[in-house]
């Protein structure tokens, strides 16, 4: 591990009261994309991302490859979930649904031992608050430079998606957008919550993620989000992990 300080998130002016105005600042982003593939990364791609640092909540860095390399990995398989910025209500709902569905008993009952790992694109010192928001029991790391997101083919998009996923069945678009700002405001008032400067440090608001299943060091299945509400449904992950039979 290393104590190297994590890179800072590029600065943008503080979010105004109108969320649309804030997001408008990112709409000319040259990285914006409309298409995405679910082709698994090949060995050359995995070699290119092996040494990309990911950061724990305390700022300790470790190479991304160490979580799936059979020489170091805790289990044979790893399900790595890449989430959006740390204030995204959709991803928070996703992790809440996942955590409620895959209990500790389920986790240890997975037929092929599998680690579940979450990686976000904000600053690592926000991870404790993110765990508090989501109740997620799985390890969470940060990739504030978004190198992994980019090199593994995850995109930046304005697309919020036309279909509400099951993990957001009780959350409409307007409530989702408003909820993110309510979460921030509530945390600002919390003695152990975020500070005003942290509002900008949650990660790129248009970056979307995906899910990658590693088996003995290679990606055997993946799904890259096509819009902001397009994580693989929890029931599908349960089937993927062999917790449910077709």
Automatic annotation (TrEMBL):
Pfam family, one: AhpC-TSA_2
CDD domains recorded: PRX_like2
InterPro entries tied to this protein: PXL2A/B/C (IPR032801), Thioredoxin-like_sf (IPR036249)
Spans through the membrane: none
Origin: domain of life: Eukaryota
Protein name stated in the entry: Thioredoxin-like protein AAED1
């Amino acid at each position: 591990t290393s104590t190297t300080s994590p890179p800072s998130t590029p600065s943008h002016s503080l979010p105004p009261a109108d969320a649309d105005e804030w997001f408008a600042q990112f709409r000319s982003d040259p990285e914006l994309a409309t298409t995405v593939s679910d082709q698994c990364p090949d060995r050359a791609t995995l070699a290119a991302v092996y040494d990309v640092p990911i950061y724990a909540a305390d700022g300790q860095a470790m190479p991304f490859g160490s979580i799936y390399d059979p020489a170091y990995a805790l289990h044979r398989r790893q399900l790595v979930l890449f989430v959006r910025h740390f204030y995204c209500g959709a991803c928070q709902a996703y992790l809440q649904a996942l955590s409620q569905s895959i209990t500790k008993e389920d986790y240890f009952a997975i037929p092929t031992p599998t680690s579940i790992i979450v990686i976000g694109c904000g600053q690592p010192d926000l991870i404790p608050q993110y765990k508090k928001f989501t109740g997620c029991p799985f390890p969470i790391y940060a990739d504030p430079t978004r190198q992994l997101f980019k090199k593994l083919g995850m995109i930046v998009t304005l697309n919020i998606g036309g279909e509400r996923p099951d993990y957001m069945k009780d959350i409409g678009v307007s409530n989702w957008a408003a909820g993110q700002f309510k979460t921030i405001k509530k945390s600002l008032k919390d003695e152990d919550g975020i500070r005003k400067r942290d509002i900008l440090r949650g990660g790129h608001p248009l970056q979307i993620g995906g899910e990658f299943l590693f088996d003995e060091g290679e990606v055997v299945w993946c799904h890259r989000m096509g819009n902001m509400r397009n994580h693989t449904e929890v029931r599908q992950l349960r089937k993927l992990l062999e917790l449910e039979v077709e």
